């Protein structure tokens, strides 16, 4: 989850850890989740698949105090595009020492707060209609992720994540790639801003 709202209500005697998803490279309310995990003595696993390059005050969220494990995944459409693989970073030095190299220095970011923008989403009242309108202009947005409970294998949990369910009905991923020109960006902005959103 990437929100603190309602997370505490899901914690019970069987809970051992919380998984926080840095969706689209955003950190959301990670600080609140860290506080919640500390309060309940839970481990915090950061799903940082989209967060390669995300920084807050120049610091990668995966290295924050309170994040026990940061997990990255790599494949063709991830921020770090390579063969299907992954990386796990542990806060505990006895685990991290296996991968550490003191001869490698990370280059500092020029700004205090940065998002990797692995994806760029907006939420609109009529998502499907806007997708159709964009397609008329050969602009192809998408819907990358839906509420898991929309899938048959997770239908038993329907209603447990109302915010995720609501936002998944409205969210659209706009084109974002190295080949977009300023003119392309202006056209996308114009279509999105001019499209009727009062439905």
TrEMBL record:
Gene Ontology BP terms: polysaccharide biosynthetic process
GO molecular function terms listed in the Swiss-Prot or TrEMBL record: pyridoxal phosphate binding; transaminase activity
Keyword field: Aminotransferase, Transferase
UniProt keyword Transferase present: yes
Keyword Transferase belongs to the record: yes
Designated name of the protein: UDP-4-amino-4-deoxy-L-arabinose--oxoglutarate aminotransferase
Lineage: Bacteria, Bacillati, Bacillota, Clostridia, Eubacteriales
């Amino acid at each position: 989850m990437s929100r603190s709202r309602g997370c505490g209500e899901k914690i019970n005697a069987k809970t051992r850890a919380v998984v926080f998803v840095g969706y689209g490279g955003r950190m959301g309310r990670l600080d609140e989740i860290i506080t919640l995990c500390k309060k309940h003595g839970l481990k915090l696993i950061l799903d940082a698949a989209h967060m390669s390059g995300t920084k807050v005050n120049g610091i990668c969220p995966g290295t924050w105090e309170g994040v026990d494990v940061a997990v990255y995944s790599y494949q063709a459409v991830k921020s770090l595009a390579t063969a299907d693989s992954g990386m796990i970073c542990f806060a505990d030095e006895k685990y991290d020492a296996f991968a550490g190299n003191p001869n490698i220095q990370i280059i500092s970011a020029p700004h205090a707060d940065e998002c990797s923008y692995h994806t760029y989403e907006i939420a609109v009242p009529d998502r499907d209609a806007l997708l159709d309108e964009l397609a008329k202009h050969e602009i192809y947005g998408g819907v990358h992720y839906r509420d898991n409970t929309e899938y048959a294998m997770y239908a038993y949990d329907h209603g447990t994540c109302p915010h995720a369910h609501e936002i998944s009905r409205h969210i659209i991923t706009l084109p974002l790639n190295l080949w977009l020109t300023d003119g392309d960006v202006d056209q996308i902005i114009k279509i999105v801003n001019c499209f009727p959103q009062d439905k």
